[in-house]
Amino acid sequence: MAETLQTRAGGQILADQLALQGVDTVFCVPGESYLAVIDGLYSYANSIRMINTRHEGGASNMAEAYGKLTGRPGICMVTRGPGATNASIGLHTAFQDSTPMILFVGQVGRDALDREAFQEIDYRRMFGEMAKWVAEIDDVRRIPEYVSRAFHTALSGRPGPVVLALPEDMLTDMADIADIAHPAIAHSIAPAAADMMALEAQLAVAERPFMIVGGSTWSQAAVDDIQAFAESHGIPVGASLRSQDCFDNRHPNYAGDVGIAINPKLAARIKESDLLMVVGPRLGEMTTQGYTLVDVPNPSMTLVHVHPGVSELGRVYLPDIAINARMPEFAAAARAMAPGGVKAREGWVMNARADYLARIKPTEVPGPVNLGKIVAYLNETLPEDAIITAGAGNYAVWAHRFFQHKKYRTQLAPTSGAMGYSVPAAISAKLTEPNRTVVSFNGDGCFMMLGQELATAMQFNANVIFIIVNNGMLGTIRMHQEREYPSRVHATGLSNPDFPALARAYGAFGERVESTDEFAEVFTAAQACGTAAVIELVVDAEALTPEQSLSGMRAQGEKAKA
Questions:
Q1: Which of 242, 281, 437, 447 has the smallest number of Cβ neighbours within 10 A?
Q2: Rg of the chain's alpha carbons, rounded to an integer?
Q3: Which residues fall within 8 angstroms of residue 416, CB to CB, at 6 or more apart?
Q4: pLDDT confidence of residue 389
């Protein structure tokens, strides 16, 4: 039966396509350039939430976190010019982290284009290197086509962000056009049988195999399959930067995170391996320790690289076996391999595990607040499905090192190294998974970048527990400063507000912790308070890392300069 076409405005057509794609949440800062879309979404007020944030950086980071958590494109809407530039931070994270996301940007009217009209920007040029595809919809009749392509592009191959610019006058044009026939899905990319046979042959002769997991397109089933594969073949496993939830950290084959502040023993073990399987991650700078962990371009060990984006295979390193596949399909095929080699590699796996277990014992640090012990307490007491978010800064090293992720999608953190991510990501996580505990780790500098989104948390009842690690400085930059220019401290100190009082001003719970022993009681109160909560941890500036003091770093820098 032929579809009866209804004449609709462009804004309504766009809203209808989003509904047909199964969108349930839109993160935005409203703007006059796309009011017609907001009006179109009014028709879906009971099925599509509009989360109006306080800053476009908050909106785009929330959309990115939604994409990470669900595997479906996170939707962000912002206005032209300043709105788009503010939102670029979340888009960049989505690109580097391979997260599906669609950014809709209001644009000036078509009659004003190319005149440097009010807030006009050419988004194709602006976002060309930050997105998989950037386009502008010039014809109202093509909205369904563009939206369908945007969703397919965001989900296909290596997932990532897409940008669609929406001229203001196009959104008020009328048209009778058919809707999207069906929603976009992530299509299967299965490994070739010949590649799996080649991998099996390499495993049969390997004495010291090692696997690094991470990246995107995982699922809990894929994690279960890859764990079974590692176990049945005697393979120790590390997780790439901020992908620690791709393998149960309690599993006897788990050997630690391959990222910033890597365990030196783990780095040595990877270099010593004779078969390195990289399953999911890009072989980027952080995972490879500045491209030193594996020789460029010809690795010393046999390299197997599995990635859903074919352009990543061979981009930096020449793999012996390059497998273009999504993680669920590869993990299932790997699990189906006949078991072997477990007994011969028993010592290899056990030693890797022992090194990891020794690494996660909290260290002693200067000052009355020991962040390692606090993270260890949370590791023991939080539910297995609790979500931990973090931004960027030295404080995050403690969260990554001392917390064990037990299930998939319990870690949300940017591999792009962007500050300000943790607050909006945690709010997005709590709105998406309201029955799960969400704990947001922040440095004092990191929190102040997008901490105003605490107002969004309160407005939408996102009862996140925000932990602020306050050392009165930009710790990572101060660390580098003391190493490279010892004692020449400049521009890294911070003067902070009274964080508990600030929290209470928003209507949230707010308390300060000045010793490790105080934390458990305060955290319990935060869990029971019924609102968003802020816990400030006052840490000694000397506690620079779990193993190095500020003065020790300065002395190291002075010695190097001598």
A1: 437
A2: 24
A3: 92, 93, 95, 96, 97
A4: 98
**Region for 57 from its dihedrals, namely left if φ exceeds 0, alpha if ψ lies in -120 to 50, beta otherwise:** alpha
| Bridge partners, 4 (sequence order) | none
Q: Which domains does the chain have, with CATH numbers?
A: 8-175 (3.40.50.970), 193-359 (3.40.50.1220), 371-561 (3.40.50.970)
491: left (phi over 0), alpha (psi -120 to 50) or beta: left
Q: Is 452 helix (H, G, I), strand (E, B) or coil?
A: helix
- Map 252-285 to HEC letters: CCEEEEECCCCCHHHHHHHHHCCEEEEECCCCCC
Mode of pairing for the β-strands spanning 174-175 and 8-9:
antiparallel
Residues 303, 307, 313: CA angle, nearest 5 degrees: 60
* Per-residue pLDDT reduced to its tens digit, 127-172: 999 999 999 999 999 999 999 999 999 999 999 999 999 999 999 9
* Cα first-last separation, the chain: 84
Q: How far apart are CA 30 and CA 94, in angstroms?
A: 21
Distance set, CA 304 to CA 278, 442, 474 (Å)? 6, 36, 39
**Between β-strands 438-443 and 25-28, what pairing exists: parallel, antiparallel or unpaired?**
unpaired
Look at phi and psi of residue 439 and say left if phi exceeds 0, alpha if psi is from -120 to 50, else beta. beta
Give residue-wise pLDDT tens across range 239-287: 999 999 999 999 999 999 999 899 999 999 999 999 999 999 999 998 9
**Residues with Cβ within 8 Å of residue 224, at least 6 apart in sequence:** none
Cα angle: 273, vertex 404, 476; to 5 degrees: 80
Quote the CA–CA distance of 275 and 439 in Å, as a whole number: 37
Short-list 432, 439, 520, 321, CA closest to 68: 432
Q: Three-state DSSP class for 542?
A: coil
The CA–CA distances, whole Å, from 174 to 10, 138, 140, 491, 544 equal 6, 13, 7, 54, 60
- The position carrying tokens 């060990």 is 301
Q: Two tokens at 60? A: 């785009």
Report the C-alpha gap between 202 and 192 in whole angstroms.
16
Q: Classify residue 191 by its DSSP letter.
A: P
3 state SS for 461-489: CCCCEEEEEECCECHHHHHHHHHHCCCCC
Question: What residues have CB less than 8 Å from 45, skipping those under 6 apart?
Answer: none
